[in-house]
Amino acid sequence: MPRRLSSSPAPRTGLRDLLTFQRMFTGQTIHLVYWAGLCVIAMVIFAVVGIAVGQAIGGGLQGVLLAFPVLVVGLLVAGAMALLWRSFCEFYLTIYRIGEDLRAIRAASDAGQRPPGL
Fold first, then answer.
1. Cβ–Cβ under 8 Å, residues 52 and 71
2. What mean pLDDT is reported for the chain?
3. How far apart are CA 72 and CA 60, in angstroms?
4. Which 8-state DSSP code applies to residue 6?
5. CA gap 75, 70 in Å, rounded
6. What is the pLDDT of residue 1?
7. CA 41 centroid distance within chain
C-alpha cells in the first residue's frame, strides 16, 4: 500500500463544503470571468472599428479625417481596458491564494507542525 506524502486529510467535496465556505470555487471560476471580460473588450474593439469605418464612409473628407483618430484612440483605450482587466483578475486571484495560504498555515499551526515553506 503506497504511503501518502502529506499527513493532511483528503479534501472533502460536496455541497456542504460550498455552502459553508469550507471550499471556495473562485480559483476555477476566475478564468471563466477573465475570458468573458475579454470577449466584452473584443466587442468594444469591433464597435470602435465599425464606428471608424462608418464615419469614414459616410462623412466625406471630414469623416475620413475624423475616422483615423477615432480608430487609434479607440484601440488604445481597448488595449488599456484589456490590461486593466487582466490586472484586476490577477489581483483577485492573488488575494484568493493568500487566503488559501493562511488557511494552510493555520491548519499546520493547529496540528503543531511547522508551516510549509518556512
1. yes
2. 81
3. 19
4. -
5. 8
6. 47
7. 13
